[in-house]
Specification:
The chain is of the alpha/beta class. Helix content is 46%, strand content 12%.
Length: 193
């Protein structure tokens, strides 16, 4: 499922929902999660923007963030689609992340598709989550940031994915709480760095 990369620092994968949460917060359009989630996501992406995280992403991240963070940016509290300046602001944010940043982009190729199929079956995942996870594993990402607590629960309940920690974004100075690192391991919180 995965190939080794000699001499390269541990990489992370940032799930689409983290980017979308920040777009919604920065544009003022209906934050779906609580303010603490927004703040934590913002800190993870600030680390990425400052060059402190080596990020790998499936091209599916771009599609999802474009679709949910710009094309259909929606304020659920008001049941309205965002338009005009809000969409332009979302586009500028997406372009800054995805066109001007050193993300290692990965196409969904046959091996990833087959690995995603296995993950979807094992953990009862939808195809998008399975592709994100398969890409993270295939590209030797040690960390997978997501707000999707249900996804984390399914992976944990299914025994975990070897060498991949699923993490909720955390604010600086807080404990980082890995949900599951490998099959059969029960992890305790790590001390902040």
């Amino acid at each position: 499922m995965s190939r080794r990369r000699g001499g390269v620092a541990q990489r992370c994968y940032i799930d689409s929902c983290v980017y979308i949460e920040v777009i919604k917060g920065r544009t003022g359009v209906g934050i779906d999660h609580d303010e603490q989630d927004y703040d934590r996501c913002l800190q993870v992406l600030a680390q990425f923007e400052n060059g402190n995280l080596a990020v790998t992403a499936s091209t599916m991240v771009y599609v999802e963030v474009f679709g949910k963070g710009e094309a259909k940016l929606h304020d659920k509290r008001k049941s309205q689609l965002a338009t005009g300046k809000t969409q332009a602001a979302a586009s500028a944010i997406i372009d800054a992340w995805f066109k001007s940043s050193p993300i290692s982009w990965v196409e969904v190729h046959q091996d990833i598709a087959e690995d995603a199929r296995e993950l979807a079956r094992k953990f009862h995942l939808d195809s998008q989550d399975a592709v994100h996870l398969a890409t993270a594993v295939d590209e030797d990402c040690g960390i997978f940031y997501t707000l999707d607590r249900r996804l984390i629960g399914r992976i944990e309940d299914g025994g975990g994915i070897p060498n991949l920690q699923l993490l909720l974004p955390v604010a600086m100075g807080q404990l980082t709480i890995p949900i599951q690192a490998s099959v059969g391991d029960k992890l305790s919180p790590l001390e902040p760095s």
